[in-house]
Design a protein that fits this description.
Blueprint lengths: L6 H11 L5 H19 L6 H4 L1 H4 L2 H13 L16 H17 L20 H15 L5 H16 L3 H4 L13 E6 L8 E6 L2 H20 L13 E6 L5 E4 L7 H14 L3 H4 L4 H16 L1
Antiparallel strand pairs: 1-2, 3-4
Length: 299
């Protein structure tokens, strides 16, 4: 990200770097940062908002910013040939980011309209049980590398109720003896200190991890090694160019990024028999269901 010419945005960059939020929330905050930069570039906000982060986050600057941002005028690229209004879900994320930043500066939350977006329904306990049985059936037969990875990932998710950003940070060193436990570093979405815990794994998860680790071993050897638990299956590129302007190709076996993990979930849900009926559209919905089960078991 380029350094801004505005002192207020420079201060915002420093605040973001020290905020300690999860990867998903950081992407949302970076979206807001870009919108604020473009609003200042256009002279759409009060002049004092250029010089002071606190003035940038005061209601006098935020109300016009939110109005313009919701209109779509601050998008960084065209959508369908134009700049349509942002979705209600994006608008709510923007409001949450505003209050998160204001809280970091010791400022009270604002009421800028809108309301909480209803959570998408999470699967019921019976559906989670059916999902576990389906994964067990997969383990009884031949699986592709992609299906092997997804089976292990879903089994770990059922046991740990980890967020996608927590899942993607898992390493082989976070596995206990014989895969009998997984160490998860909890990362609150809204920021704050994380807290790690060992989670005992089910027989399903132990078997699924054993299958995946065999596949992973060959992949990682080709990529010269990594301790990350989830790795890529195919060659891809990360958007980086070499000195000659050519795309840098990443071999299979490289650490899987959060976007790749979420994509594998979405693709696998549609690709493998039985999953479309058992998995919700989003991994986060599955996480909430798994978390509810963990709480019920602990009660």
């Amino acid at each position: 990200m380029q350094t801004s010419k505005f002192p207020s945005v420079q201060a915002l960059d420093q605040l973001l770097d020290g905020l300690g939020v999860g990867a998903a929330r950081r992407r949302q905050l970076d979206m807001m940062r870009g919108e604020l930069q473009r609003a200042l570039d256009r002279g759409a906000l009060p002049v004092p908002a250029r010089r002071s982060l606190r003035r940038l986050l005061e209601e006098e600057a935020l109300r016009p910013y939110v109005r313009i941002a919701e209109s779509g005028a601050l998008r960084h690229r065209r959508v369908g040939g134009g700049f349509p209004p942002t979705s209600e879900a994006t608008n709510e994320i923007r409001r949450k980011c505003i209050d998160l930043l204001r809280e970091a500066l010791g400022m009270p939350p604002l009421r800028l309209g809108g309301g909480e977006i209803p959570l998408q329904p999470a699967p019921e306990a019976a559906t989670l049980s059916a999902l576990a049985r389906q994964l067990d059936r997969y383990l009884g037969g031949a699986m592709s590398p992609a299906q092997t990875r997804l089976t292990a990932l879903l089994a770990v998710e059922l046991d740990t109720a980890a967020r996608s950003g927590e899942l993607v940070e898992l390493r082989t060193t976070d596995l206990g003896e014989d895969n009998g436990a997984v160490y998860v570093e909890r990362r609150p979405q809204g920021g704050g200190a994380g807290e790690g815990e060992w989670v005992e794994t089910s027989a399903l998860t132990r078997a699924a991890l054993e299958r995946w680790l065999d596949v992973r071993k060959d992949l990682v050897q080709r990529a010269h090694g990594t301790s990350k638990l989830w790795v890529s299956l195919w060659m891809n590129h990360d958007g980086v160019l070499d000195d000659q302007g050519n795309t840098v190709i990443r071999p299979p076996g490289m650490p899987l990024e959060e976007n790749g993990l979420i994509t594998s979930y979405r693709v696998g849900r549609l690709r493998y028999d039985g999953l479309r009926q058992l998995l919700p559209l989003k991994l986060e919905q599955l996480r909430r269901a798994a978390e509810a089960e963990r709480r019920r078991a602990a009660a």
